[in-house]
Structure formats: structure tokens, C-alpha cells
Design a protein that fits this description.
heterodimer; A: alpha+beta; Aldehyde Oxidoreductase, domain 4; seven-stranded mixed beta sheet; five-stranded mixed beta sheet; 20 helices; B: alpha+beta; DNA polymerase, domain 1; 5 helices; 16% strand; globular
Chain lengths: 777, 164
């Protein structure tokens, strides 16, 4: 039977609830006796806590409890939070306490938790908590943090969390022999994730069993269970973590947070359910984000534009703590050498503590940074030689006949990185075609004649997806013939329920609406990792496929026995197994399920194991690499510095497309996120470490009016690394957007000789670039 | 601080009479007192539009209006957008078809904003639709499918109007 639903634009199973206000996000859940938490957060970037006076707060109406670290109990107060992503490369791992003990290291660090009958009362009481701070010097700019005298953590010898290094080939020889070189200095800034739902936690302990349940707006319920159990000093079996409907994630919700531990501890102490929903201001300062990276890079190349070697160094602003190991930092180097066959590479990256909000991956993690650097390098090579940037890309691409292509890089487990499949040149050519790049010079010249400035930019990329080890799935058929899919993989809007249902429905020959997907509840499925790194279609999708295949096999063996026909003569269709060509010789899947569910005193039929269900854990041991190219066209107003996006094309290869609408939705939304990074989003701190962009008036997100038409093309080169042939798509729109848009602006300003090495490109910066260039001439 | 006032209003066609703290904004009132959790709070400073509801037919940010100000008004939330028999509003149907939502958090505010807009502007251009949702932030979709859904719904609503 061929695929019927995989590849089809079916309507999402999630939508009927979400469109009618029947979603259930954490803050929508109400439990009897539930009380509400609010946090008192540090107002200083760096300070010693001299004293905390909670007397007045405790006397406020409705207050149930006021908690400093010690009030949360000895298990929680004993130590800093665990390192959730340990790595031997970490030189000095500093995580925060669940509530600050004697030092605060960023504005927004939680110091005191107040619990009251209502959120208003909790906030009223929080305002009465008196904290006496002894302000310490703050280190804010990571470039100064390694050379200066100021320590981000009091008493620390330096601010270096780790120094990463990647490389391959003979870099000295590359620079000795190549006839040309360019040097790049790039200042990159990526901002806050801003899922429209903030973080939220609800913790409740069952009075009889003692079992603790935590609902969290998290991407990683299993990681939260593991580390929360550790912090509380309880067994994982006494803790259930559920991620219900989650209103967007984009990375930061993958992290285990202090508030999850504080609420759990308070729920136990108070014997009541305790809820907290982050407000937007808290999201700005206390949810992890991404910020500055400063890149220095030398590129060696020949007359044809072929790059022989890249070497350089990155300074990475890590923020005050290291909640998620080196995941973000490592992904800033891992995408090398991009879409290109590069003979030699040597890159280092310093992970530097500053007194700012901790960082962790935001959509794309460090990949947009790395691809920006690589693509800037390619553009610079083209400019140096006077070549077409697309031509330089073609000269350097890994060719379609080179797959699997071993890049020289090492994966996280030390194994060699190999790009599995693709056709990078075909993606670029199609993107140029869709964007009518050939017609651009005419459009540019016509505009110029009217005093307008148009520019075009191209960027090519790869994305490592499907990160291991696994997400699993159980497929179970009920006696009514309905199918339940259980998985640990949490969804934050990606439509996993639909995607997994498509895969399973095809495997069993049932209708999409016969499938129910239950996910992200540690009580319903045993193991899970987390929804990060564009990995769920590859991992959970493959597991669902394999589990469905096992169930199908069981159905066939049962029916073969009952109908006395060979397995090869049977088909699954419409909820039945039937003899091929004889549809009336059939058994419903529900009847098979009922038979295998057992009857007292009778043997399970057909020599089969009990139950019509199966579980699979597909382990992703090698990395499917998505790829593609983006073309952006912009107009720049040289008087105001405003950038108008005219056109944005992405041709993308994520292997088999399971659901065109969902994949295009991921790409489009991701592209807009990248455009926001390129042009608008700026999380700013002053010299004392005070955040100065903490509302949506000061921090600009992309809105509908600025966004260009976004058009998407697909190339489907199947990945040989999993049974579905899929590669991840969740971050592919974001990754190439920044270099493409930045190049388009630079291209528009070519008459001024402007070179752009920094984003976001807000109007002020664009005007300054033009003015600086005019001043030179 | 905890002054209480009695208010009477109509929510999704049903009369409601109850006490509310005077400082409660309409969004918290709808969610916390009436249990209508389909209205979502995204920023609570009037910038994201997630909490938009219809007040006497006009799109209003429920985080910027006190519950007591809703006294005597007609409120429609996402829970009241579909017909009483469950038939989806053309916008809801178009959102499902055009993949106009992902996580669903901004969706209620998008739908209520667009419902008011299409009533006043039945034959909008794409630019007008984009303007209409320029005060609604979405981090998932990139807006494009929402715009497509709004135009599809508008076309269908005009057709239905023509039939009548």
C-alpha cells in the first residue's frame, strides 16, 4: 500500500480545539485550593545580598508563604542547580541557586518567592519584601570580560566558562599557498525568543500518595523530571511532569528553570497547588535568550573564489550562568564548513560570563551565527574578486555526487560529521530562478533612476537536524478500532499530533481522524529527551513509523491465521485487514485488538503476544542535514535608513515532506524570526548591566506589515539515515535569513561602498553606515 | 486595593452578573472569574494583541480595560465566535485550511481582531489585512498564512452575503 497521508496537506488535528478557545495551556488549569506565586527579582546586575526582610510581606492579605532559598528546604537549598548538559569541555560550570543565596549576578535573578491566594496579592506582598544589596561591579561587555579586573561571580579568578576549538586540514598550508585573503570582523546579536505564551508552572502534590505533579510550559518534560527530582531529592517515580498545550517554545523553554523547582517545593511545603505564569517583563529578563557574539575571521582563497581555509576566533556572551552547558556555544561552530567543501578550518570560541540574563539556544541556536559568518565570508570573497556571489557559492559547494560528504568536523559524540544527501547547487539555482535574480539588475536600475536603492542577497546553508539519541512512540489499537499514539515528544505548535498521526495512519491503513496522539506526559510514556534541534520528525516520526509497522505485522499474522491466507495476500485499508481483491474477507482492526486483549481461560490466539500495541525507539545515530538557499530583495531608504523587504525566497531540502503546510509554516515563521534578528530585535543593556529594552515598545518584534511575500520551494532528496527519509525543518527558515537580508541591504548600498559587519540593521545604523561612507569620500 | 464592585454584562450572548475587584482587568476577569480561558494574555501592556476581545463589536485589548468598565457592555470572546450550533466562523474555518495557526496562543486575538475588521471592511486588500493585524504579534506563522486565511474568509463571507 502506498502512502496516502504522508505528503498530503491534511487539516491539523490540533486546530478544532485551538480555534475555539478550548486549548489548555498551563495558566488555564485551575485546581481546588490553588494559590499563586510571584517572584522578587534582582534589580542589580551584580550585588551581594546583605539581608532580606520578609516581615511586612508576610503580613499582607492573602499571603500563604514567603520563601527565601533556605525556606525551600535543605534539599533545595543545599547546592546550586544541576548542570543539565554536562561536558568535559566546560572549564567552570556556574549555575544559579533556585533562589539567590548571597549574591545576584543579573537583573531578573529570582531572590524571593511570594505565594498568596491571588496573583494580585502575591505581587502586592512581593513589593513589600525588603532586600538590602551591596552593589558590586558588573561586567557587561564580554569583550572586556576576559581582560578586565571585574568578575561576573564574586571571587572568581576570571570569566571564562569554556574555550571551544574545531578544525581540520592543514590551515597553515592553506594560508601559505592561497593567493588571496580577507579579514572579517563581525558583531552579531540575537535576541529574546518571545514565545507568545511565557513560561508557566503549576505544581501540586497528591495528599494521599505524596506524588508530585508539575505542569510546565516546557519543551523538555523528561529533562525537567530528571533534574527536578534531583533538586528535590526525590525519586523520579514520585514526580510526574506534563507539558500541556504550550504556546510556542523556540528554544528557551527547553531549559530547566529555578521557578519549576521553587514552585514544586512550595506546593509540598504549603500542601496546596501553586501556580505561576511569567509576565512579559519577566520573560525579557529571566528567560534565557541569545545575545552578542564577536567574530574575527581570516579567509584564504584563490582566483576562482575557491576557499582554501578559514580561521578565526569568537567571543560569546554567555550571560551570568551556564544552565544548559555549551549547547548554544557548540552550535555556533558546529555548522562549519556550511554548504561548502572546505580543505582547512581552525576556529576557537570563548564562552564568557557576563552579568546579564543567561543564554541558551533560540530558534537556530548558534547556527544562524555560524552561517552568517560563513556567508559573509563568501560574499567578501566575491567582492574581493569582483565575482557574482552565487558563482562563488557554486565554486565551493559540496557537489551532489559527493554524498555522503565527510566534512572533517566532529559530531558531539566525536564521530566524523557527514552530510547525508542533498543538491545544494540545485537549491540555489531554483531560489535564484524563483526570485527572478536574472531580472534584478533591470529592477535595480529602474529604481535607481527614480532615486531608490534596491539590493539583493543570497545565502546558502546546511542545518544539522534530528539530534539523538531518541524520541520513542507507542502505537496501540483499541477494540473500537481507534489508534492511540503515545510519545514523549512535547509540542509547542509544530503540529506533531498531526504529523505522527499521518505516519501511523498510513502504516495501519486507518483514517487520520481515527488516530489520537498523546504526548509530553511522563506518566503516559516512559522516556523522552526534548523538542529541540529540529529533531522530532526524525526521531519520534521514525519511531511512530516503526511502531506502526510492528502493529501492522501483528495484524497480518493474526489475519493470516484466521483467514487462512498468506500474509502477502493481505492488505490493511479503511480500518480493516482484508484479502487482496476480496474486500468482504476482512477483519476489523478493532476485532484484532479485542482478540489480542485476551479472554479469561483462553490462549492468546495465533501464537501472538498479548495486546495490539508496539513501542519503538528509533535512535538517531547520524545526522540528517537539511539544506537550502535563500534570496532576499530589499529597498533601502537612504534618508531614513528604513529597509523595506520586497521579496524573500527559500528553496529548502528537508527530505521527505510529511505535511507541506506544516513544513512551510515552520520555514515561513522561522524566516520571519531571522528577519527580526537581521533588522529589528535588540536586547540592550546599559554599562551597569541594566536591561533597557524590556517591553514591546522598546524591543521590536516583526509584525505583519513589514513582512515581505515569502515563497518556498522544496527539493526532496531523501535522507538515507531514517526510515521516513526526513530531515528536520524547524530552524531552516531562520538560519539563512540574516546573511541574505544583510547582504541585500549591503548590495542596495553598494553605490556608497558600505560594508556591513553588524546586525540588527536598525534605521539608525543604516543611516550611520551611509554617513560614514559619505564622510570618507 | 481590593475594592469590589458589582457588574452586569453580556458575555457571548449570556447575561452575567457578578462581583469583581475594581483593579481586575477585563482579561483577568474573563479568565479568572468567568473561566473563559480562551482569551490569552501575552504581554499585559497592550502590545501583543493576544487578549483581544470584542466589546460592543469593537476589537479591544482586554488587558487595557478594567472589568468594571465592561459594565453594561456586550462582550464576545473566542468561545463565542462560532455559531451556537458549533458551526465555525468563516475565519476559524479558513485558519484551519490555510494553516493560520501553530501554537494557538495568539490565535484568539487574531480571530477577534479580524472578525471586527472584516465586518467593517468586507473586501480588503492584502495590505489592509496586514494593517488590521499589525497590532497582533505572532511568533510562529510569519503572518503570511494568517493573511491568506483572512482573505479567504472575506471572500467566502462576501459570497454568503450575496446569497442572502
Amino acid at each position: 500500500m502506498g502512502a496516502r497521508l504522508v505528503g498530503a496537506q491534511v487539516q491539523r488535528l490540533e486546530d478544532p480545539r485551538l480555534l475555539t478557545g478550548k486549548g489548555q495551556y498551563v495558566d488555564d488549569i485551575v485546581l481546588p485550593g490553588m494559590v499563586q506565586a510571584a517572584f522578587v527579582r534582582s534589580t542589580h546586575a551584580h550585588a551581594r545580598i546583605v539581608s532580606i526582610d520578609t516581615t511586612a510581606a508576610r503580613a499582607m492579605p492573602g499571603v500563604r508563604g514567603v520563601f527565601t532559598l533556605n525556606d525551600l528546604g535543605p534539599a533545595v537549598a543545599r547546592d546550586r542547580m544541576p548542570q543539565t548538559a554536562p561536558s568535559p569541555a566546560i572549564r567552570r560550570s556556574v549555575t544559579q541557586y533556585v533562589l539567590a543565596r548571597d549574591e545576584v549576578c543579573y537583573v531578573g535573578e529570582a531572590v524571593v518567592m511570594v505565594v498568596a491566594d491571588t496573583r494580585h496579592q502575591a505581587e502586592d506582598a512581593a513589593a513589600r519584601v525588603l532586600i538590602d544589596y551591596d552593589v558590586l561591579p558588573a561586567v557587561v561587555d564580554c569583550r572586556a570580560a576576559l581582560t578586565g579586573q571585574t568578575a561576573a561571580h564574586h571571587g572568581a579568578a576570571d570569566n571564562l566558562a569554556a574555550r571551544l576549538s574545531v578544525g581540520f586540514g592543514d590551515i597553515e598550508a592553506a594560508f601559505r599557498t592561497a593567493p588571496h585573503r580577507v579579514t572579517l570582523t563581525l558583531d552579531q546579536h540575537r535576541g529574546v525568543a518571545h514565545s507568545m505564551e511565557g513560561r508557566a508552572v503549576l505544581a501540586a502534590q497528591d495528599a494521599v500518595s505524596g506524588k508530585l505533579t508539575v505542569w510546565s510550559a516546557t519543551q523538555s518534560p523528561y529533562m525537567v523530571r530528571r533534574f527536578l527530582a534531583r533538586v528535590l531529592g526525590i525519586d523520579e517515580q514520585d514526580l510526574r511532569v506534563i507539558a500541556p498545550d504550550v504556546g510556542g517554545g523556540f528554544g528557551p523553554k527547553a531549559v530547566f528553570y529555578p521557578e519549576e523547582a521553587a514552585l514544586a517545593a512550595a506546593a509540598v511545603k504549603l500542601g496546596r497547588p501553586v501556580k505561576w505564569a511569567e509576565d512579559r517583563k519577566e520573560h525579557f529578563v529571566s528567560t534565557t535568550n541569545q545575545r552578542d557574539q564577536h567574530w574575527q575571521m581570516d579567509v584564504a582563497f584563490d582566483d576562482t573564489g575557491k576557499i582554501h581555509g578559514i580561521r578565526g576566533h569568537v567571543q560569546h556572551d554567555n550571560g551570568a550562568y551556564l544552565p544548559y552547558g555549551l549547547i548554544l556555544a557548540a552550535t555556533s561552530l558546529a555548522p562549519f564548513p556550511g554548504a561548502y567543501a572546505l580543505p582547512a578550518l581552525q576556529m576557537t570560541l570563548d564562552v564568557i560570563y557576563t552579568n546579564t540574563t543567561p543564554t541558551s539556544p533560540v530558534r537556530g541556536a548558534g547556527r544562524p551565527n555560524a552561517i552568517f559568518a560563513i556567508e559573509r565570508a563568501v560574499d567578501r570573497v566575491a567582492d574581493h574578486l569582483g565575482l557574482d556571489p552565487a558563482e562563488v557559492r557554486r565554486a565551493n559547494f559540496v557537489r551532489a555526487d559527493q554524498f555522503p560528504y565527510v566534512t572533517g568536523m566532529k559530531a558531539r559524540d566525536g564521530s566524523p560529521v557527514a552530510y547525508d544527501s542533498g543538491d545544494y547547487a540545485a537549491c540555489l539555482d531554483r531560489a535564484l530562478d524563483m526570485a527572478d535574480a536574472a531580472g534584478f539588475p533591470a529592477r535595480r536600475d529602474a529604481a535607481r533612476a527614480q532615486g531608490r536603492y534596491l539590493g539583493i542577497g543570497v545565502a546558502s546553508f546546511i542545518e544539522d537536524t534530528g539530534l539523538g539519541p531518541f524520541e520513542g512512540a507507542t502505537v496501540r489499537v483499541t477494540p473500537k478500532g481507534r489508534v492511540t499514539v503515545l510519545t514523549g515528544a512535547a509540542s509547542q505548535g509544530q503540529g506533531h499530533a498531526t504529523t505522527l498521526a499521518q505516519v501511523v495512519a498510513d502504516g495501519l491503513g486507518v483514517a487520520l481522524t481515527d488516530v489520537t496522539v498523546i504526548s509530553a506526559d511522563t506518566e503516559r510514556f516512559s522516556y523522552g529527551a526534548g523538542t529541540i534541534a529540529s529533531r522530532i520528525a526524525v526521531t519520534a516520526g521514525s519511531s511512530a513509523h516503526l511502531a506502526a509497522a510492528k502493529v501492522r505485522d501483528k495484524v497480518l499474522r493474526y489475519a493470516s491465521d484466521k483467514l487462512e491466507v498468506a500474509i502477502g495476500d493481505l492488505e490493511l485499508n479503511g480500518g480493516f485487514v482484508h484479502v487482496a481483491g476480496v474486500p468482504e474477507m476482512r477483519i476489523s482492526l478493532g476485532d484484532v485488538a479485542l482478540a489480542l486483549a485476551g479472554t479469561v481461560g483462553q490462549r492468546v490466539p495465533s501464537g501472538l503476544e498479548p495486546g495490539l500495541e508496539a513501542t519503538a525507539y528509533f535512535e538517531s545515530t547520524a545526522t540528517p542535514h537539511s539544506s537550502g538557499s535563500t534570496v532576499a530583495e530589499v529597498e533601502v531608504d537612504i534618508e531614513t535608513g528604513a529597509v523595506t523587504l520586497l521579496n524573500h525566497v527559500i528553496v529548502h531540502d528537508c527530505g521527505k515532506v510529511i505535511h507541506p503546510g506544516i513544513v512551510d509554516g515552520q520555514i515561513t515563521g522561522g524566516a520571519v524570526h531571522g528577519i527580526g534578528n537581521a533588522l529589528f530585535e535588540d536586547m540592550l543593556y546599559d554599562a551597569e548591566g541594566q536591561p533597557v529594552s524590556t517591553n514591546f515598545g522598546e524591543y521590536l518584534l516583526p509584525t505583519a506589515t513589514e513582512m515581505p511575500p515569502i515563497r518556498i520551494g522544496h527539493l526532496e532528496t531523501l535522507s538515507p539515515l531514517n526510515p521516513l527519509g526526513v530531515k528536520g525543518a524547524g530552524e531552516s527558515g531562520t538560519i539563512p535569513a540574516i546573511p541574505a537580508v544583510v547582504r541585500a541591504v549591503e548590495n542596495a548600498l553598494a553605490p556608497f561602498g558600505v560594508q556591513i559587519n553588524r546586525y540588527p540593521l536598525n534605521p539608525e545604523r543604516v543611516v550611520n553606515l551611509i554617513d560614514a561612507s559619505r564622510g570618507k569620500t | 486595593m481590593d475594592d469590589i464592585r458589582h457588574i452586569a454584562l453580556t458575555v457571548n450572548g449570556q447575561p452575567v452578573e457578578c462581583d469583581t475587584p475594581v483593579r481586575l482587568h477585563l482579561g483577568d476577569f474573563l479568565r479568572g472569574i468567568l473561566g473563559l480561558t480562551g482569551t490569552h494574555l501575552g504581554c499585559e501592556h497592550g502590545a501583543c494583541g493576544a487578549c483581544t476581545v470584542l466589546v460592543d463589536g469593537e476589537a479591544v485589548r482586554s488587558c487595557l480595560m478594567l472589568a468594571v468598565q465592561a459594565n453594561g457592555r456586550q462582550i464576545t470572546t473566542i468561545e463565542g465566535l462560532a455559531d451556537p450550533d458549533g458551526t465555525l466562523h468563516p475565519l476559524q474555518q479558513a485558519f484551519a485550511e490555510k494553516h493560520g495557526l501553530q501554537c494557538g496562543y495568539c490565535t484568539p486575538g487574531m480571530l477577534t481582531s479580524l472578525a471586527a475588521f472584516l465586518r467593517d471592511t468586507p473586501d480588503p486588500t492584502e495590505t489592509q489585512v496586514r494593517d488590521a493585524i499589525s497590532g497582533n504579534l505572532c511568533r510562529c506563522t510569519g503572518y503570511q498564512p494568517i493573511v491568506e486565511a483572512a482573505l479567504l474568509a472575506a471572500a467566502r463571507m462576501r459570497q454568503t452575503e450575496g446569497v442572502r
